[in-house]
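Hi V.,

Quick status before I head out on leave. The structure for the redesign project is tokenized and pasted below; the design run finished overnight.
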């Protein structure tokens, strides 16, 4: 059953099948200032392997050592519009089907999917999981946080207060105490206690813009303000401290913490990848490869390698913070529009929202 606090209604589950295609992507090392990346891509209509080559230019010094990475592509039901993904505890992968108002689940072993209806008017954006495997969704259409239980797909809806309409909810993250923090681009950030359902909504210190959110290993929450072009740290009393990046009007979109608690930021307007170090209150900034980069998503994997999506070159970008070098991998579809990245050890997952497709890059054999 679907529970809407405090009201009750029914839940529906849809199912369909998908297929997968394996490809191998291998960046080619070049001299300083020029990067070439070659990838074999499966044509979704024929599953034939179609090699493509792209060239990008950057100012970084010599390329990182090349490595072959395995890419696997999974089509999801047409019209899904997958926005965010979250690897599940059972080996599957959750994804928000924003265009159809559903939460999808993919079985990578078979390519099969199932969809859970989130309710009339739903437009889910971000999804993460808790320690029990429950999926937590920030749903802008419902103006609510939605929890989906992994076994029976029971749906529970936590609506925002009536005096907070049209919050334009985006993403969520659990703090060190198990409280869910989430953002709304209309100018709010908020907390939800899953144990009690208690919700507190805060006005963002500079108004519109809160978008991406992350939690450091010591449980501190940071969010990015796209319209405000800054990041902010949420303090223990719930207030937010604004932290200004050095690049003005950069359009901080998403944030992710590495294992040392440093905050990585995707700068949408500026096309940069930046890093904030709280211990020293300092910033480092790197422009993405290419002529007109647009940095959308950012994620730090279990080896502290940084991944970003670039709408400008329709590619995924891999950045090694030790060598300060980039590798660029073209996407299977053009446009792909990768809006979020998440993973588990050895796997990087992301959706091509414009192509109704999910992709995993395997980083371990």
């Amino acid at each position: 059953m679907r529970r809407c606090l405090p009201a009750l209604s029914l839940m529906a589950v849809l199912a369909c099948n998908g297929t997968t295609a394996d490809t191998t992507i291998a960046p080619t090392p070049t001299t300083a200032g020029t990067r070439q990346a070659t990838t074999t891509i499966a044509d979704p209509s024929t599953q034939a392997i179609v090699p493509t080559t792209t060239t990008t230019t950057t100012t970084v010094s010599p390329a990182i050592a090349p490595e072959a990475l395995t890419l696997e592509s999974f089509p999801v039901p047409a019209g899904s519009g997958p926005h965010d993904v979250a690897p599940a505890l059972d080996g599957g992968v959750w994804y928000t089907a924003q265009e159809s108002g559903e939460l999808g689940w993919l079985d990578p072993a078979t390519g099969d999917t199932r969809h859970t209806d989130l309710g009339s008017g739903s437009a889910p954006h971000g999804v993460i999981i808790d320690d029990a495997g429950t999926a937590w969704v920030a749903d802008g259409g419902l103006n609510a946080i939605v929890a989906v239980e992994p076994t029976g797909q029971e749906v529970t809806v936590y609506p925002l207060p009536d005096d907070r309409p049209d919050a334009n909810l985006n993403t969520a993250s659990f703090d060190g105490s198990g409280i869910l923090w989430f953002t709304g681009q209309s100018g709010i950030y908020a907390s939800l206690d899953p144990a009690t359902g208690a919700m507190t909504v805060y006005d963002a210190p500079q108004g519109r813009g809160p978008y991406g959110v992350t939690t450091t290993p010591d449980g501190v929450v940071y969010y990015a303000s796209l319209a405000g072009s800054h990041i902010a740290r949420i303090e223990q009393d719930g207030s937010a401290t604004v932290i200004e990046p050095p690049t003005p009007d950069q359009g901080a979109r998403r944030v992710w913490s590495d294992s040392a608690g440093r905050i990585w930021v995707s700068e949408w307007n500026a096309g940069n990848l930046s890093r904030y170090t709280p211990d020293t209150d300092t910033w480092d900034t790197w422009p993405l490869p290419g002529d007109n980069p647009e940095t959308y998503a950012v994620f730090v994997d279990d080896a502290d390698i940084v991944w970003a999506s670039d709408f400008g070159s329709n590619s995924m970008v891999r950045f090694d913070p030790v060598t300060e070098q980039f590798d660029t991998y073209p996407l299977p579809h053009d446009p792909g529009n990768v809006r979020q990245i998440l993973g588990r050890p050895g796997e990087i997952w992301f959706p091509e929202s414009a192509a109704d497709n999910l992709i995993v890059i395997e980083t371990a054999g």
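Above is the designed sequence. Residues 2-362 form a domain with the Methylamine Dehydrogenase; Chain H fold (CATH 2.130.10.10).

G. will cover questions while I'm gone.

Best,
W.
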